Amino acid sequence: MTMGAAQAPWQRAAGAAGLLSEKGAVAPTVFEELTALANRHSAINLGQGFPDSDGPGELRAVAQEAIGLGIDEGGLNQYAPGTGLPEFRVAVSEHHRRFYGRELDPESEVLATTGATEGIAAAILALVSPGDRVVTLSPFYDSYAAMIGLAGGSHATIPLRWPDFQPRVEDIAAAIAPGTRLVVVNTPHNPTGSVVATEALEAIVRRCREVGARILSDEVYEHLVFEGAHVPVASLPGAGAITLTAGSAGKSFSLTGWKVGWLTGPPELITAARAVKQFLTYSSGGPFQRAVARGLGFDRQFFLAGAARLQEQSRCLGDALTSIGFEVNRPAAGYFLIADARPLGVADARELAYRLPESLGVAAIPVTAFVHPGAREDYASLLRFAFCKRPDVLAEAAERLRRLPEVL
Q: pLDDT per residue over 150-161, tens digit each?
């Protein structure tokens, strides 16, 4: 999908994300509209992917202390270095060494970003020129499309199909065609909750090397894998020299409002992303970086316990949806599961999503919000539910959803 050359940059971004009306106005996103409906009807919001409980008190205390200190006491209330606090970059580097056996130079191979979303934006804007082909998995996080559009790129996709949502080798080869500039990988995957198989990741890396493409790997759910271990794309044979990886404290520590993220990768790619990042936010909050640096030093058991809690929440919500009549995928990681409403006689999940807040007091997101218009038919009956909520909230949502057959 290539945006017209006559469009202004903001129109390319909005149009690529499906938010530009025929009259040129920017329409609200599905997320905005359904959140507004949820608020209006006091619905339980299982649409947006944010936890409803705060992250570790120890990290919040570190941030509070850093805010409370004056400038002469070593406080961090002024600009942090553009690349990130040295202690933060060292913590990211050490974290990668402990968990993945990868050695990163904190000076040249780590960049602090204002959330992973800014890191993704900086990377795409740094590496993509007008007309360049950019490939993502589909469904895809909506910011990918917007940034590809803003850069003037052409957005192609590798489809992930119900129910396993795994890329097929033939689709990888077809999408990553000669002339591809960048491939955006997302594993663990949002919105489907799948963990892309190592064999598929290796096929993507091989194909990128064949056509001369770089890789941007969005791995913000790295510590939310329910079984087995996360495999960083950059750790695969031949991938390290061509891959930028985005990480996030928001997902790993349930602190999404802090907007602390990072990019890691070879110096030349970090330099490219930094050149753009410094003109977006320049620097990110120092007190939060200090706190996240502490958290990155937590032991493996902390992260395993968080993943186990999410797995149990996923199981409870999935069982409830199955008992109602949905067909449910069982996610391997992350915050979300996908439910197919077709067994309930519902072919249009988008229409159902807009009814749910008022009729049942629950909000969910149609999966068609994460694909190109031409692909929506393949995902028309699918809804995304967030299970990163307290058990009592999920239980109440399940109880409300049990009345769905009556409503239908």
A: 999 999 999 999
